[in-house]
């Protein structure tokens, strides 16, 4: 055996002084070195106020907020649920001042599962959502109790409906004044809640309940215009844009000038100077020249 090989074997078998000491210590304290639970005890403390304006009331451990507690943000949003290491962790819910509730499951501060519940109790479904979308425009109370007969319809989701001050619009969270262009509290018309954007102001005026109530009537834009047929077709009629139609032998008389009028089935179609087929007229009694 060479000297170099013998030296390698000798160094491989050599044990350091520290390793030997640790081995002897472990054998001497075998019972004491058994694994123990690492669960950190949690204690209940008084309300903790933070420099940011938030506050917490619940259980703590040496690492921070842990267990179950209530955390209130400066904007009055409240989280109530489980914590771990100072983070939302487990089941809990966020409660907003307007009444909405976001119920969900958190993992180290990240929301991994959620359910949104509106202030009137309606539960949002992001997969099959039809509430307040055409053709379903019912309130939650109508979903729950059904539609009411004429004259007794629900005007608002809250019952009884609150009275709207003269000249204001009911936005749900307050009353909108078109003169000052701000929304006031329903309990105090001198307390401003917020200032809506220009786009929202237009939407409020077009859709929200107001005082006085605007007159209701037929929607002319939803009507088809049915007229009697014309007797003569203009000489400059063309059918290049609608080849499936034949020039009408009896054309409606509207007292207006049209570029083209064609007959298709029992209907007349008009082509304006802008080039769009934008009207349909029913042929009651076509007259043949």
TrEMBL record:
GO cellular component: motile cilium
Origin superkingdom: Eukaryota
SMART domains hit by this protein: MORN
Subcellular location: Cell projection, Cilium, Flagellum
Keywords annotated in UniProt: Cell projection, Cilium, Flagellum, Repeat
One Pfam family, short name: MORN
Main location as per UniProt: other
Protein name, per record: MORN repeat-containing protein 5
């Amino acid at each position: 055996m060479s000297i170099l090989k013998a030296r390698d074997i000798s160094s491989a078998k050599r044990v350091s002084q520290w390793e030997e000491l640790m081995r002897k210590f472990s054998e001497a304290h075998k019972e004491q070195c058994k694994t123990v639970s690492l669960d950190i005890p949690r204690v209940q403390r008084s309300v903790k106020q933070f420099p940011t304006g938030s506050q917490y009331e619940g259980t703590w451990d040496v690492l921070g907020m842990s267990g179950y507690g209530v955390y209130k943000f400066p904007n009055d949003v409240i989280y109530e649920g489980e914590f771990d290491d100072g983070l939302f962790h487990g089941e809990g819910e966020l409660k907003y001042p307007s009444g909405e509730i976001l119920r969900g499951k958190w993992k180290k501060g990240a929301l991994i599962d959620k359910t949104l519940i509106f202030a009137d109790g309606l539960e949002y479904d992001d997969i099959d959502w039809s509430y307040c979308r055409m053709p379903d425009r019912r309130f939650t109370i109508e979903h729950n109790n059904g539609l009411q007969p004429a004259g007794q319809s629900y005007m608002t989701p809250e019952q009884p409906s609150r009275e709207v001050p003269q000249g204001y619009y009911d936005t749900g969270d307050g009353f909108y004044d078109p003169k000052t262009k701000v929304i006031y509290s329903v309990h105090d018309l001198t307390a401003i809640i917020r200032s809506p954007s220009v786009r929202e102001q237009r939407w409020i005026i077009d859709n929200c309940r107001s005082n006085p109530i605007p007159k209701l009537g037929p929607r002319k834009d939803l009507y088809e215009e049915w007229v009697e047929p014309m007797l003569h077709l203009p000489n400059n009629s063309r059918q290049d844009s609608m080849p499936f139609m034949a020039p009408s032998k009896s054309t409606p008389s509207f007292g207006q000038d049209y570029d083209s009028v064609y007959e298709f089935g029992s209907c007349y179609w008009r082509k304006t100077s802008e080039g769009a087929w934008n009207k349909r007229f029913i042929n009651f009694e076509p007259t043949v020249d």
